[in-house]
């Protein structure tokens, strides 16, 4: 045999051996449809059902509509005492609420226009009519707020933006 033929045979054997070693490392010849069904997750715990008791309305709370209770501004009084609680519950275990009376108008259209200007500035405004000296006045309010400090902060923003002198009122149900 010639030396060139020997070198070619040895080279082919070396390449074949390298192919047998390297090809299985590069390519996975396992069945791709075979699913590994072994799990390393622990078994699911057993959970017992718990009976939840339905909440009941406290005895001192009247059966009124919640929205009418929040927006009942006829029972609101000016908040002047700085020693008052800024937040929390009142004597009947209801949350203290605060509204800001921004303005009062004789015409409903003017009140609605001002309310829309407040809403454009992202304030939650609403209108409530009130009888003053046998005349109907339309009052524009912002709120309600649970925290008095936030109501006072909004009052200063509103007074600066709209050049008004608004009043912070405490809602009492």
Tell me about this structure:
The protein has helices at residues 3-26, 66-70, 108-120, 148-162, and strands spanning 77-78, 97-105, 125-132, 135-145, 167-171. The chain is elongated, with a radius of gyration of 39 Å. A 5-stranded antiparallel beta sheet has the order 1-5-2-4-3, covered by helices on one side. 17% of the residues are buried. With 173 residues, it is an alpha+beta fold.
Give the proportion of residues in helices. 25-40%
Strand numbers in spatial order across the main sheet:
1-5-2-4-3
> What value does the Rg take, in angstroms?
39 Å
Number of strands: 5
Query: Number of DSSP helices?
Result: 4
CATH class of the domain at 66-171: Alpha Beta
The rounded distance between the terminal residues' Cα atoms is 113 Å
Shape: elongated
At the fold tier of CATH, the topology name of the domain at 66-171 is Alpha-Beta Plaits
Strand content: 15-25%
Low-confidence spans? none
Q: What structural class do the secondary elements suggest?
A: alpha+beta
| H and E string | HHEEHEEHE
Question: What is this entry, summarized?
Answer:
The protein is α+β, with helices and mostly antiparallel strands and 173 residues long. Helix content is 33%, strand content 20%.
Please supply descriptive tags for the structure shown above.
elongated, alpha+beta, 4 helices, Alpha-Beta Plaits, single chain, five-stranded antiparallel β-sheet, 173 residues
């Amino acid at each position: 045999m010639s030396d060139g033929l020997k070198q070619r045979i040895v080279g082919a054997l070396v390449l074949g051996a390298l192919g047998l070693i390297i090809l299985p490392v590069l390519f996975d010849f396992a069945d791709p449809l075979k699913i590994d069904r072994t799990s390393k997750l622990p078994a699911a715990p057993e959970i017992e059902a718990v009976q939840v008791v339905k909440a009941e309305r406290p005895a001192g709370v009247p059966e009124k509509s919640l929205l009418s209770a929040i927006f009942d501004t006829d029972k609101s009084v000016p908040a002047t005492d700085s020693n008052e609680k800024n937040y929390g519950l009142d004597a009947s275990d209801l949350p203290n609420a605060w509204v800001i009376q921004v303005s009062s108008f004789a015409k409903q259209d003017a009140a609605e226009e001002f309310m829309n200007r407040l809403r454009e500035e992202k304030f939650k405004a609403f209108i409530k009519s009130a009888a003053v000296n046998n005349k109907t006045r339309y009052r524009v309010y912002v709120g309600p707020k649970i925290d008095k400090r936030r109501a006072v902060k909004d009052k200063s923003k509103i007074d600066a933006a709209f050049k008004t002198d608004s009043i912070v009122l405490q809602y009492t149900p």
